């Protein structure tokens, strides 16, 4: 049984958040969401930083969820359910660390609090004509990074952050796999590289004089490449409207379902922890992930 000690009655959520930001988050510095986590935790600190850890309960977290639901964006609209859930995920990471590694909490209070309802939104994916136009625009762009990046995104369904922070040590040319070390569910993934993506990645490796470090190198030494400007150029050159880089992931999912992949295969290929998101795409059955990914490789050829 957990009994609150004197230190637990003195330590506050602000103390815990400060320690998390100083000691733990820097070890996740290559995670694209680190800046977002800092923003989320700054809000929790401002609103509930005074709460001592012995009084940090699910009721406290639920109160925070209620306050978030009343917040407005810069456009004067309420925060979306997805945004609220990201704030909950941010404080959950802190509480899990305090529970599992520091022993400052008896459990993670966030786990007992229900999530906000999320809208499914509109799923946007490339038509065949749009896919050809986008790949043509990538080939014509002066930055070779963008073509390899887009091809990998379409061939694997990986998130932008997973691709941007790839290192050559994460690439196996013998097995044609990518190792994704930072994932949403905390488990490393090994993702097959298929079809046109193999040739694109091999050529990219051959062009790299260092053969080490970031796969997509930035213009400053030691920094990864920032794809925002290049993505905007090729997207506009291809005439794509209302299309985000993340929609490439949706496109891969739609190709998988067209190739016969089932619910579990889509979830496995895209790294979903549950089948909830995969249900938006999949309603058929298929075979192994590599086979289903290989089945859509021809889409990248022209």
TrEMBL record:
Domain of life: Bacteria
Gene3D superfamilies registered for this protein in UniProt: 1.10.150.130, Intergrase catalytic core
GO MF, one example: DNA binding
Annotated InterPro entries: CB, DNA_brk_join_enz, Integrase-like_cat_sf, Integrase_catalytic, Integrase_recombinase_N, Tyrosine_recombinase_XerCD
Key word DNA-binding present: yes
One BP term from GO: DNA recombination
Pfam families assigned: Phage_integrase
Stretches assigned to the Tyr recombinase domain: 121-294
Keywords of this entry: DNA integration, DNA recombination, DNA-binding
Domain Core-binding (CB): 11-99
Membership in a protein family: Belongs to the 'phage' integrase family.
Protein name per UniProt: Integrase family protein
Species classification: Bacteria, Pseudomonadati, Pseudomonadota, Gammaproteobacteria, Lysobacterales
